Amino acid sequence: MLVAAFLVPSSPAVAAALSDAGFFGRWSAGAWTVGPRLDYAYAGLKPVENAVKAGNYALAKQRLLDHYRARPAIEAGGFSHTTWPGALELTTDHIWTLGSGEVYVKTLTFGPGETTVTADVTSSINSGKPGFFLMSRYKDAVIALINSRSKGSGKPALRLTLADGSVRTLTPTHDTYIWAGKPLNVYGAKYYMQVSDVGVGAFTGETRKAYLRFDLGGVTAVKKAELTLTGTAGSAKDIMLYGNAETFDEATRTWDTTVQNTFSWQGDPGGFDWELPPGADNEYLYQLPRFSFAGPLALEYQKTGDEQYARTLIGLMTDFIKDADGYDADQGAGSYPGNLHASRRLHNWIAAYEILRKSPSLTAEANTAILKTMNRAGLYLQVNVNGTPNKMQSQKITLLHASVYFPEFRAAPAWRTDAAGFLSAQLDDSTYADGGYKESTDAYLRGYLSQYVDVVAYMRRNGITFTATAKLRQLARFLMDQSYPSGYGPAYGDSDSLDLRSTLKKLGELLQDPELRYVGTSGASGEKPAHTSVLYPDTRVAVSRSGWTAADSHLRINADRGNHSHPDELAITAYAYGRPLLPDMGTFTYSTDAGAEWLRHTTEAHNTVEIDDKPQTSTAAGGISHLISNPAFDLIGANTESSAGARHERSVLSLHSGLWVVSDRLKPVVAGEHRYEQNWHFAADANPSISSGTEATSTAFATGANLTIVPADPAEVASGLSDGYYAPRFYSVENAKYASYVRTVEGQTTFDTLLVPSKGAADTSVTVERLPVGSAPSYEATALSLNGGAGVYYKSWTTKAPRTFGPYAFDGKLLYADAGSIVLVDGSSVERAGATLVKAPAAVKDLAVTFGGDGTVRIDGSGLTASTDPAKAIAITAPDAARVILNGQAVPFEREGAIIYAAA
C-alpha cells in the first residue's frame, strides 16, 4: 500500500521554485516521504524511479529526458498562433510586438552620412496599414535623423504602382517622432525624425521612435508599394520598419499620448522581464506570457531543423520560469499572471514540447524545469475557477490536453475527469435560457465556439464523452443569427468584424446541422435556415433579417450586458446591399488611450441616444419588449433605464423591401432640462455630409451601397458631423465622422428618423414631414409624411385608439403605407381620404399587403386563413388584383368593386 504522502503532491518549498524532491519525490527507508508528481507505474519511467530512489536527481533528470525523447508521439494540440510579428528574426533579441497592429517589415540601414533607402511595403499597404513607424534594431549610442515631410528635399515618399499600370507618389499627411526623455514634447513640425535607443530595459530616456501616416483615400488595387526614406547617421544605424494602421495627429502626438505595442530588451543581460512596460497597452502584460510566438519558432524548427530556433524557444521558456517562478507560492511560474494567460501558455508549451523534446538543445535540466512548470500549471488550472466563460473554457481545454499528453503525471486522470465534466456542463453556465451567450461580444463568441469545435473532435478521438451537443447547437445558432448576410460578425462589444463562416461550417459538420452548414458555406451546401428574424429575450437581443444572401438586409438592436460589453443599450447596427451601413465602431485596444476609452466606455460612440453627456450604466432595467415578425417587415420594441436622467424607449420598423424607421421616446425620471444626443456612426471612408434645411445625413462611399438618415424635426434639433474613431480591427484605428442630432428640453420628447439604404449613391431626395395627430404630442402618437405624401408612417406610444393624421385614419398601433404596400400592427381599419384601404372584422396582430405590378397581391400575417366571406374576411382595396398569395400560398379571392376578400 502507498503511504498518504504519496497521494498528495508535496508542499512547496520555502522558495517559490519547485524542488527536485517536490517533483520527483523523496524515497527514504523504503517509503516515499515526499510523494512524487510522476506516476512511476507508467511504462518507461522505471529508470527514473530507480534514480530517484537512489537519491540521484541528476541521473533522474537525464533518464526523464531519455524517456520523453523515446516516447511515441501523443496528440499535443495546436498553437494559438502560427505567425507572430517578427518572431523568427527578432525574438532572439527580446524584441516584442503585441498583436497585429504593428507588423515588422524589414530592417533598414542608414549612415554613415546621408543615406536614401527604399523598402517594399506592398504587403503592409494591402493589409490596411498605411502608416509606419521606425525603431532602433540595436541598443547603441547612434542617433539617426530621418527627413520629415517638413524638409525641403528628400521627404518620405510612398510610390504606388496601381493595377492599371499608373503610378502615384504620396508624401505623409502626418509624421513625427516621440522621445521618452521628453514625454510631453511635440515634434511634428521638425525637419527630422529622430530614432535612437540605448541602455537596458524596455526603454530609457534616450529612446526615440518615428511615425509616418499616408492618406490612401481613393486609392485602390495597389500592385506594388515602395517607401523611400532619406536619413543621416554618424555611423551605420540599423532601424526596424513596421507597418501600422493607427491614425494620429503630428500636432499632438507625444510619448505620453502614444500607446506603444513594440518594445526592445535587445542586449539586456536579463532579457525581457515579462511585465508591463510603462505606456504599453494593458494587454501586453497578458499576451506575451501566453507565448503566442512559440508556434512560429517551433514550427520553423520542425521545418528546417535549425537549432537556433529550438535554442531560442527553450531559452525563452526557461527565462520565463526564472523570472516568474516567484509569482505564486503554490504554482510558481505555472500560474503567472493568471487564469486565461496560464492556460494559453500551457497549451502553446505542450504543442511546442512535442517538437522540442528531441532537440539536442534541450538539456536534462531545462527539460525538468519545463515539465515542473507545466505540471504546476495543470494543478492550477484544475482548481482555479473563473466566472468568465471564455477564460474557464480555455483553462479546461488546456487541462484536458495536458491530461492526455502527460499520462506520466499522477494528476492526469483527475485532470481528465475534471476537464471533460466541466466542458460539458459549462455551456449551461455560459448561456442564457434562450441560447444566447453571456459575454456581449461576437468575436469572443466565435472564439468560444471555435474552441468547442476543436475540443469536441479531440475528445471523440481520445475516447472522451461530450454530453452537451444540444446546448452547443443552440449557441451555434445564436452566432449564426448575429451574423451579417455576408457571413461576417457585426462586431458588437469588445470585438472586430470577423468572418464567421468557417466556424459555422465546422459547427454544421460537427453537429450535422444543415442550416449552420448553409450559412457557413454561403449557401453552397446544407439547407437555408427556416427562419430569418429572431428575438433572444433573455440575452436581450433582436435581429431583423430579410434573408440569408449577401444582398439581404440585417439590423441588430441590443440591450445586452455581460463581460466585454459596451455602454450601448438600444444601439443599432445595420447592413444592406453588401455593406455595413451603421457599424459598431469597434474597440482598438484595451489600453487607456483616448480613442480606445471613447470607443469602449462612452455611449456617444454607439448608434443610440446618449443622455446628459454620460455613459450608460449596466445594472438598470431594460430589455427587448417585443419582436413582431412578418415576411414583409419586423417591428422591434426595446427600452432601457441605463441612463440616470431618463428612460429611453426605441421602436424600429424594418421593412424587408429596404427601409428602416426608428422612433425614440425619452421619458425623464429626474425633473428639469435634459440633453439627448442621437448618434449615427459610419466607416472611415463613408464621407458623410449633412444637407442644410432637411438636416439629412448621406454617406458617399466611392462604390457600393450608401445610406441616407432623415430626421423628422430638423428645425428642432442641433445637427452636425462630429469627429470620432473607427476601429475595424484590434490595434487599428482611423478617424471617422459621425452624425449627431441633439435636443435639450424639459419633459418627454422624441426622435423619429428614416433610414434609407441605397444600392448605389445615397438617395438625397428623401423627405420627411411631421403630421399632427389631433392634439396628441409626438410622445403619445407620432405620424410622418414621407416623400411629399408618397408614404406615411404612424406609431402609437400609448393605448391604441382611432386617430387621424394627414389624409389617413387608423385605429391600431402602427401603420406604414405607400403606393406598393400597407403594413399594420394591432389594427383593423385603415382609410385614406375617407376611402377604405383595409377593413377587418377584428384587430389583426400583424398584416402586410404588397401590390405587385403584375396584379399579384401578397398578404402576409399571423393567424390568417383563406376566406372569401365578406362577413369574416379582410376587405382590401386592390382594383388591379389578378392573383392573391396568402402567407406564400395562392388562394381564391372575391371582388366587390375595387375591394377584394381573400383572408380572414
TrEMBL record:
Pfam families: CBM96 (PF24517), Hepar_II_III_C (PF07940), Hepar_II_III_N (PF16889). The keyword NADP does not apply. Residues 560-730 form the Heparinase II/III-like C-terminal domain. InterPro entries: CBM96 (IPR055372), Chondroitin_lyas (IPR008929), Hepar_II_III_C (IPR012480), Hepar_II_III_N (IPR031680). It is found in: Periplasm; Secreted. Residues 268-507 form the Heparin-sulfate lyase N-terminal domain. Keywords: Lyase, Periplasm, Secreted, Signal. Residues 1-15 form the signal peptide. It comes from the Bacteria. PANTHER family: HEPARIN-SULFATE LYASE. This is DNRLRE domain-containing protein. It comes from Nonomuraea rosea.
